[in-house]
Amino acid sequence: VSSMDALTLSKYDDLLSDVLLDQVGLWFRTRKMFPRYRPARTNAGATIGIVQRVASGATELARAVDELLQQDYIAAFLKHKSEVRLADFRLHAGRYFSMYLPAAGYEIQQTGRYKVVTGQSEARVVATKRYTLGMVISLCSGSVAKLSEPETRRMEAERADFSVIWWRKKKSMCLFLGPARFVNHDCDSNCRFTALGSDAICFQALRTIEPGEEITTHYGGSYFGDGNCECLCATCEKYSRG
After folding, report:
1. For 118-147, what is each residue's pLDDT tens digit?
2. Which segment of 62-71, 137-146, 150-159 scores lowest on mean pLDDT?
């Protein structure tokens, strides 16, 4: 069970999204919680080898995480971490490795939909298999950390609140990071957030989702301005809203 605070989760996610996504499978850099984050000096070739073995089913997640933690850069990053924080890192790394499992059912792709606002390419999640009503997309998950009011205000001021939601389970604004953060909002989404234990979320299909279709969820009725007046989703584009 994750016990991460928002700061720890942010640091872990910046590193793991860099090492296990940006450096091995994407042609662009995903957005980071810390704008001054610098790419990790890990062995990308070795990491790609681990990812390929996970994708082929030859390596289990726990072994993949073990191999990643043996890399010098990662070992140095974790050197003075407590057993609890080390377990948190392993858990979050497992969420990212889960993207490559044969049963994952989705992949991360590039989108330019939000470039007019963010000034850069962003990620999106696309189905690689057919989902029907009620199916849970459990391998696209995110760790959740409660946010204090000052933390929420700081993230809003720094425009780092792209993965902040109100979660009724914790009765608090929460930061969620991991592969789940790449599931974009749509005002007519095909998925909803659902709890995965006490400190994680994933998604449940609200209707049939075909292979090649983007997986989307609903972040809130006023997440992008009053009444989502600034929304850039496909549905708002279709109906000339936002």
Report:
1. 777 889 999 999 999 999 999 999 999 988
2. 150-159
Residue 18's identity, in one-letter code, is D
Q: How far apart are CA 87 and CA 4, in angstroms?
A: 10
The structure tokens listed for 234 are 């496909």
Q: What is the DSSP string of 60-94?
A: -HHHHHHHHHTSHHHHHHHTT--HHHHHHHHHHHH
CA distances from residue 133 to 64, 125, 183, 192 in whole angstroms, order as listed: 32, 18, 18, 11
pLDDT at 192: 96
- What b/e sequence results for 130-162 when a residue is b if at least 16 CB atoms lie within 10 Å of its CB, and e otherwise? ebeeebebbbbbbbbbbbeeebbeebeeeebbb
Q: List C-alpha distances in Å: 158 to 11, 122, 161.
A: 16, 18, 8
- Please give the backbone phi and psi of residue 163, each rounded to the nearest 5 degrees, phi first: -125, 45
State the amino acid at position 167 in one-letter form: W
